[in-house]
Amino acid sequence: MNSTQANTSVSDVEKLARRRAGAKMGWYIHAFVYVLVNLGLVALSASRGHTWAVYPLMGWGLGLLIHGAVIWFVAPGGSLYDRLVERERRALRSGERG
């Protein structure tokens, strides 16, 4: 591998690492806002003797769950994605199809 290829691959790794870190940071911010807002909604709901806060908790919680699943399992760098890529590499090296 020449120095240009090495620099390109290091640059590509750096870009991917920054993209993955940014996506994960986005999820952490999403989760933090979810907790803060829903604590306020639960407090407001409870202070009035109602239980309506469970609905935004469940709806937004589902969105947060899906966001996390995409970040940690499906997106490049996620464990499921990495396992599938590795399986494909092995299959291609061994000449398998499918």
Written overview of the protein:
With 98 residues, this protein is an all-alpha fold. It has one domain. The protein is 84% helix and 0% strand. It has 3 helices and no strands. The chain has helices at 3-47, 54-74, 79-94. Helix 1 (3-47) packs antiparallel against helix 2. The radius of gyration is 21 Å and the shape is elongated. InterPro entries: 2TM_dom (IPR025698). It holds the Pfam family 2TM.
Explain briefly what this protein structure is.
By secondary structure, the chain is mainly α.
Give the total of domains: 1
Gyration radius (Cα, Å) is: 21 Å
- Tell me, rounded to a whole number, the average pLDDT: 86
Unreliable stretches covering 5 or more consecutive residues:
none
Q: Name the helicity range.
A: over 70%
Q: Helix/strand/pairing class, anyone?
A: mainly alpha
Distance separating the two termini: 30 Å
Helical segment count: 3
Q: Note the beta-strand portion.
A: under 5%
Q: Label the overall shape.
A: elongated
Number of strands: 0
Order of helices and strands: HHH
* Largest beta-sheet characterization: none
Oligomerization status of the protein chains? single chain
